# Entry
Amino acid sequence: SQQGEEDPQALSIQEGENATMNCSYKTSINNLQWYRQNSGRGLVHLILIRSNEREKHSGRLRVTLDTSKKSSSLLITASRAADTASYFCATDAIGNTDKLIFGTGTRLQVFP
Amino acid sequence: DAGITQSPRHKVTETGTPVTLRCHQTENHRYMYWYRQDPGHGLRLIHYSYGVKDTDKGEVSDGYSVSRSKTEDFLLTLESATSSQTSVYFCAISADGGRAEAFFGQGTRLTVV
# Structure
């Protein structure tokens, strides 16, 4: 079974609004990453957060990590139509940081 | 863009035939991964490699084998293709496993008829 599950599965918002996606995972981790996938393309790395970090920022992206709840959230502020894509979280695992396991993804649609 | 290419990009094959997909990198990264992507399942790990001739199974390895005889190439073989293996296959590379960002190829769309 997959390590991570994103919530919601799909999200539709207007340009300028904020988008929040959540990821829950099952086993303890060392690192959690977020990726973006435009339709029909490969995934592109957005941000990596380590288990000893609680929050990380990159441009309009803000990622939080709560290891006690085994969950992470990705916030995209002031969304643009170009942010329309699928977003995935990915984790390694305690005892095996070689693996990179992805969740099921959130499809974000941003309307102009 | 990271130097990672997948071949072929598209393939149609018949049930029961063997199929090999190739992933080639020019980044000298230690880790290489094969995933399949299906609607509703996100990306699922098939096999991965942590060095030349060092490979391990992922979540959905049944019916698949891999080989890595040199750093730059990671081959995925469907030993006897089935319709359930119709999917989009992605290769990824990483310098440091789950501790670093991964770079993805453009994907191979495989149809088994």
